[in-house]
Here is the input.
Amino acid sequence: MIPLSGDIPDSKGVVCGKINSNSIVRGTSTLKRGFAHMLKNGVVMDVTNVEQAQIAEEAGAVSVMVLDKLPSDVRKAGGVARTASIRIIEEIMDHVTIPVMAKCRIGHVYEASVLDETNVDMIDESEVLTPADEYHHIWKWDYTTPFVNGARSLGEALRRVEEGAAMIRTKGEPGTGNVAEAIYHIKKVNEELRTIKSMYDSDDKQELVKMAREFKVSYDLVEETAKIGRLPVVNFAAGGIATPADAAYLMSLGCDGIFVGSGIFKAEDAQERARAVVLATTFWEESDKVKEAQKMIDERQSLLGLDIKNLDLKMQERGSTV
Amino acid sequence: MSKIQIGILAVQGDVTENFLATMASMSELGIDGTVIQVKTIEQISELDGLIIPGGESTVIGQMSLVNGGLKKIKEKIESGMPVFGICAGMIFLSKNSKDKVVGNVEQPLLDVLDVKIERNSFGRQKDSFEANISMEPVGISSFNGVFIRAPSVSETGSDVEILAKFNEKIVAVKQGNIIATAFHPELTRNISLHKSFVKLVDNLN
Here is the structure.
């Protein structure tokens, strides 16, 4: 049994049908959130072509995320970043057996619809791309394909869940090779979860109502989240992860898994690093194994990285604030 | 009779959901035992039964190979330990697997369940579905089958009993002490399959 808090069972994305004479239903929250549960303790890797996707699969990635440019190149290039070429996404889907995800712009209903038609396994409504709607996110209940969204706080995460996200990831600061923001975001979410859990445990409904107002989400969703003491969907770490030790640290903070963006394929030792990050994520509780994983990479070949204070573009701040 | 110990292979996938379903099964059956999440050879050695959860079979296989877990699990199953494989777990138990689109892919398998598997047999995530399944051979007439990028069994050896089919595809099998399903009972409220596995472990103990 998985949490189905906030579920809208008769939404447009839920499709009843038949296979021969057998009745089936697609796009339910059990199927969408359940898919994310299958990724737990795994590493999702950003890739831009078939070769990288195959390296990721061989290294033990649980899924690949297809982009036109890796986040650090999006930073360098400037301009408008959009969803990846459909032909490249399809080519990758034909060459790897693991799930294939792709990103669409925040609020871009039709990029999402194109990816849904392409049959990608999950859509990331992502701040790495240039937002298409500064006031709305996508109403994700309209799609049969599950979505993942970024969040920097519990309120933001629950707003996305209320819109239909089947999975959450921290935003971090993408394309920087700097893990500080991802750490800050997960610690903030954890702290807020502890706060509402203690309100629930002491049966303080008035404070929970205040939290719902602050978070700008329904009271029921806050109460159900407070009751279980964790997000009702799977929560991964993302944004700035570059080394095995980064991944292991985020796992130890209670993340369900890891997204690595530029950290792998912008490094000079992508193949070894991909494997090393998977090993550190799987065996994060065993410090000797994390050390072995860290030893597989060469710091001189890591993505140089950026100091967050000096950034012209903070991707995490893009898109609607509600 | 001693306390039984059931492990959930905690390499990758939906470990917690199986942990909770197994705990609930033990308590409903009134069976004295413990459920633990296992990863290391030492932990696996101690088990009376093992559940291999859903996840990505390529990852579970590769990471189990790294720390010697794969060899230990195979040894235990061959010496009679009951095992329950779900989705990726079913693939991992099999002797041969092939992806519906990509074809043959090299991946570490336990090679203990005499079946051939077709991975992603019902399509991609958008094609994932819930449907009613019947498993008459184990006395479960109706079960909500949650199929997520599910595999199916394309060929079975002579010792393999078919427990359920959906749309002419084999989706649940039993071979001696091995049970495997292509769907996810741990994502539903129905713990009857976990209960029958706990009973199987308890009876052998």
Observations:
- The longest strand of chain A covers residues 100-105.
- The longest helix of chain A spans residues 180-201.
